[in-house]
Design goal:
369 residues, Diverse_Ion_Transporter, mainly alpha
Length: 369
């Protein structure tokens, strides 16, 4: 019952559902519009991510690293680095849900303005998640939609990831080196046998995503693993994301059968530059996940869509669902002024959106795909 309540209280799902229903007046919906490989990959990925979360992997490394922080700058850099690399495998959402509460726990007795560290954790999670298909759900969609192989994907993601980490490192240099005595986090013990088994199944899922083995076999492996470790983990999986994807698939499929709309959209993204800019700008208003599904139906400039939608996760608070999630976490834990948070968030995110956006524009032509 709690699972259903959580799923149907998701506002984004209601918006996606409304989009699917409204566009059905343009054209009758068809089940063939749904990319079932993406859906299967998504379920497998979310199960394995929740297993890692259950095994406290991020909490372990957070406790390990923060014990070594002696200054505010060191603490922020360690948390940002953990967010950056953690999001590559556990998604930006799970990383934010784990690290923001941990940041709250270890700094309750410290005089640290939480706005900028929370923004940086969010930014680092968004940027780090670009690197792998696991980091962002729309990366997974692109992988299956365009039938990319492992080499093609990492040729696109590696250069921008290196640049993004340099940016995150640079931002942490603006924090002061005030000495701190942190509230120690409880020690976390890793279950090595379970963790090893999970890593092995992760490889199987990875092979399925890259079409080395059938995707259904990866899903079966994930389900068998979660039943073996703890079936209750399935209650933590965010099934609303699956439904959101299905609704957007239907909505875009409906739109795709209207010649007038297709002609208009195709005209806007008939070259790499148009596709790249449209991906960034559209993400600012409807977030990067539906933007990816929408533009991928009308453009074959894969690299431009990949960079545009991932970089487009910066900017407005709705550009990425992770941004909204972090904002909710900030309001829940720190009870601070939402206006001050949003103002600081906008200044930092739009500044980096411009800088990284220009670099991404150059990468489209420098790196052939």
């Amino acid at each position: 019952m709690n699972v259903l309540k959580r799923v149907f209280s998701d506002k984004v799902l209601w918006i996606a559902g409304a989009a699917a229903i409204i566009t059905s007046f343009i054209s009758p919906p068809q089940l063939s519009d749904i990319n079932w490989k993406t859906i299967t990959s998504l379920i497998s990925m979310m199960i394995i991510i929740q297993i890692y979360d259950y095994l406290d992997v991020l909490k372990y490394y957070a406790a390990y690293l923060t014990r070594r922080a002696k200054t505010t700058q060191q603490l922020v850099f360690m948390l940002a680095s953990l967010a950056f690399f953690g999001a590559m495998f556990l998604t930006n959402d799970v990383t934010i849900l784990t690290l923001v509460p941990l940041f709250y726990k270890i700094t309750r007795n410290l005089k640290i303005n939480p706005i900028y560290p929370v923004i940086l954790i969010t930014l680092a999670a968004n940027l780090g998640s670009i690197f792998t298909p696991f980091g962002n759900t729309h990366n997974l969609f692109m992988l299956t939609h365009f039938n990319l192989n492992i080499g093609q994907f990492f040729v696109m993601s590696t250069p921008i990831t290196i640049i993004d980490f340099i940016m995150v490192f640079t931002v942490t240099r603006f924090f002061k080196k005030n000495k701190i005595e942190l509230r120690k986090l409880p020690a976390v013990t890793l279950n090595i046998p379970h963790l090893t088994l999970t890593a092995m199944v992760t490889v199987i899922i990875f092979l399925g995503i890259f079409s080395v083995i059938p995707m259904w076999s990866s899903l079966v492996a994930a389900l068998l693993l979660v039943v073996f470790i703890n079936p209750k983990i399935l209650q933590s999986v965010d099934y609303s994301i699956v439904l959101i994807f299905m609704c957007f698939f239907i909505a875009v499929g409906n739109i795709n059968r209207d010649p007038a709309i297709v002609s208009h959209l195709t005209g806007l993204i008939q070259n790499k530059t148009g596709t790249y800019l449209a991906s960034i700008i559209t993400s600012q208003f409807i977030s990067n996940v539906p933007t990816t599904i929408l533009i991928s139906k009308f453009s074959t400039y894969v690299h431009a869509i990949f960079l545009g939608t991932n970089i487009g996760g910066m900017g407005t608070v709705v550009a990425s669902l992770a941004n909204l999630l972090a904002f909710k976490q900030y309001r829940y834990y720190f009870k601070g002024s939402p206006g001050k948070y949003l103002a600081a968030f906008s200044v930092i995110n739009f500044s980096l959106l411009i800088i990284i956006g220009i670099i991404g524009f150059l990468l489209i032509d420098i790196i052939p795909t």
